[in-house]
Amino acid sequence: MTPMPTLLRTHELCKQYRLGEVTVDALRGVNLVVMRGQFVAIMGPSGSGKSTLMHLLGGLDFATSGEITLGEHTLTSLNDDALTLLRRRQIGFVFQFFNLLPTLTAAENVALPLMLDGRDPDAYRAWIDDLLALVGLADRRDHRPHQLSGGEQQRAAVARALVMEPQLVLADEPTGNLDRASGEGILRALRRACDEKQQTIVMVTHDRHAAAFADRVIFFQDGRIMRDLDLSGQAQKRSTQEITAVTTELGF
Ligand SMILES: Nc1ncnc2c1ncn2[C@@H]1O[C@H](COP(=O)(O)OP(=O)(O)O)[C@@H](O)[C@H]1O
Ligand SMILES: [Mg+2]
User: Fold this and answer.
1) Which phi and psi angles does 195 have, rounded to 5°?
2) At what angle do helices 106-116 and 150-162 cross, to 10 degrees?
3) What is the signed CA dihedral for 123, 124, 130, 132, rounded to 10 degrees?
4) What pLDDT is recorded for position 76?
5) Residue nearest to atom 16 of ligand 1 (CA)
6) I need a surface site. Which of 2, 22, 76, 217 has the fewest CB within 10 A?
7) To test the ligand 1 pocket, which listed residue (13, 17, 18) has its Cβ within 8 A of the most ligand atoms?
8) What is the CATH number of domain 6-250?
9) Does ligand 1 lie within 6 Å of residue 44's CB atom?
């Protein structure tokens, strides 16, 4: 098998937050290489820098030092306009709290990134319906967020993250507050994005069952990578056991 090409790379990535006199070292030299089509889970205690990493990878915040490359782009040296365009076309986001627009239907929320990119959503109707079906919302396309359960809202957010067919999907605790069935629907949709479209997923999770959907789990502590666990080609149950062993050993 030929090796998969690298999609994402960080080099000595550091992030400090300054609050008055206090400096917080949220990331302390993160070196990470993620291949195209890989599904990576990130685990670690609260405050270990997981969300900070996601914000930097997504170009939502700036590194204090170090470098991030996505494909042929060096994120850490792009200007705001270039970063906005890259973010819109190449990166999909799923956050813990849905962030759907309340006045739009599920289908319109999914279409939003297309509209922001200046495209006619009517031309993408079949694609939007495919995505809604993928996340199990085929019969909810005209519902507004308040008419959807939390799990359904999050599944719409996943469909929205995939609508531009981004190379990279960043998900920060996407199954955090959901029932098991909705969580599994989301994880299966992300898994398919990897397997069928060679999209790359980086997902933060506290849940070892969710992490077991990934090909690889990176364990964070205190702004650093502590362990990098390869799960590729392994059955889910065995993966869950290995994840448990590492979290126990690291004392999470
Ligand atoms: N905007 C911010 N300003 C100041 N400190 C922050 C900010 N965001 C996060 N932090 C701090 O940085 C550290 C890492 O936070 P975070 O990346 O959110 O961790 P995690 O997602 O792993 O829980 C924590 O100590 C947190 O308090
Ligand atoms: Mg977080």
Assistant:
1) -70, -35
2) 30
3) -120
4) 86
5) 49
6) 2
7) 17
8) 3.40.50.300
9) yes
For 117, the 3-state DSSP assignment is coil
Residue 131 burial (CB < 10 Å; 0-12/13-18/19+)?
A: buried
Please list, in sequence order, all residues whose beta carbon lies within 8 angstroms of the beta carbon of residue 85, skipping any fewer than 6 positions away: none
The single residue listed with the structure tokens 């609050």 is 19
Q: Is the CB of 52 under 6 A from ligand 1?
A: yes
Average of per-residue pLDDT values in the chain: 94
Burial 201-237 (b: 16+ CB within 10 A, else e): bbbbbbbbbbbbbbbbbbbbbebbbbeebebeeeeee
Each residue's pLDDT tens digit, 10-38: 999 999 999 999 999 999 999 999 999 99
DSSP alpha helix (H) spans, 174-223: 180-197, 208-211
* Per-residue pLDDT tens digits for 40-68: 999 999 999 999 999 999 999 999 999 99
List of E strands, 53-157: 65-70, 73-74, 91-94
pLDDT at 132: 96
Q: Domain extents for the chain?
A: 6-250
Q: Which ligand is nearest to the CA of 97?
A: 2
